Amino acid sequence: MVNDGRNIWDKCLQIIKTEINPQAYKTWFEPIEPVRFDKKILTIQVPNNFFYEWIEEHYVHLMKKALLEVIGNSAGLNYRILKTKQDDSNAVKIDKQQLDTEKTNIKNPFVFPGIKKLKIDPNLNAQYHFDNYVEGDCNRLARNAGMAISKKPGGTAFNPLVIYGDVGLGKTHLAHAIGNQALKENDQKQILYVSSEKFTNQIVHAIKNGEIDDLLNFYHQLDILIVDDIQFFANKTKTMDIFFHIFNQLHQDGKQLVLTSDRPPKDLEGMEERLISRFKWGLTADLQSPDYETRMAILDNKMLTEGLELPDNVLEFICYNVKNNIRELEGVLVSLIAQSSLNNREIDLEITKEVVQKFVEQVSKEITIQSIQELVASHFKIEADHLQSKSRKRNIVIARQLSMYFAKKHTNKSLKTIGDTFGGRDHSTVIYSCKTVKDLMDTDKIFKETVDDLEKKITMSLHSK
Ligand code: ADP
Ligand code: MG
Question: Can you give the residue ranges of every domain in the chain?
């Protein structure tokens, strides 16, 4: 029987929904339309090629599972890729737009004087591009979406692209990278990067001088508008009004908008609801704190560009301890270079520890039983409290014995104190644990690797007080 498969797809969605987080569901599954169901094959329509590739790469197993469950064996899936209407309208509009800009003489703050054809200074920082924007789990979605729109501004489902994340995680870098890449693909594109502060100032200035129309005309010529840190628009009614206008016009014309914010749109207090709802039209992608490997890759990359070489233990130490913020990671590197050249000292672990201490808050050099417990517990993905419990679950027992072993080895606490800290156990239990760990290390290679790995983390990390 041929039908549009909506029933089938809805059932699949029920299954998919329980397996992934709501943001991913909203981003990748809500935009999909079922279009046909015939001979056990479901055809779904996706907005564009990038979308299709992303789903194939990340969710194909999940979809397979859902389809098998709903349709049964020999279920099949076909994709239909929607060619956006915007692609066509773009082609026509560009010509018209070029005519318009040649004729009009629009006053604006970004024009290079002396150049006949109106070419907007994109205000982009050439240092920030994709080649030096290291990819990791923390930024993959935002980076890929950014790459996709720079190749096809206005031609993907990601319009606007809203990138959000805490300070120092790479929003501004990515915003510039998108602009620079788009310019590389097509140097005729009219692109503008503007901070929300500058945008607000322009508006204040334009209002004062009766030049709002000029300002609007100027913004309407853009193919890509990138606004950084839109959270600063909050409570600025006039700015929001004018931005709303510009947003609508550009979006309607199939032009690309890229916005960054320090929090997700829904949490932007003092921002008008009509704006927030527009921010949700496209893709909202967040930047997370980078994991250890990504931090390493970022530092490697920086050293390469700076022509620097640092000992491995120095790099490891930095990456173990500077976790939340890429700007801090770079800050440590710069301070190290400065310290070592000012004091004419080699960059070694000692000087690195001094510098890192200044960047990382609330730390002591001392290894404590508590810090060991936290580290081991997190490795075994259990709560640190479990180490003090009576539980005999195998992974908890091992984590507990390991923690005792490290506590004995790396703190100067007595066996009694160590036993006390593990839920009032007695000193013979601590001795027994240490022996068990040593025996296991002698006989089990994989276990030994785990111990070595944990030990490195314990001795490398600065410890929370
Ligand atoms: P934000 O705008 O989110 O506060 P920035 O874009 O200013 O953060 O990034 C802070 C610093 O970290 C910049 O120097 C930037 O080049 C660097 N950085 C951020 N993310 C990456 C990354 N993925 N790869 C390399 N460098 C990065
Ligand atoms: Mg920034």
Answer: 2-81, 120-286, 293-350, 369-463
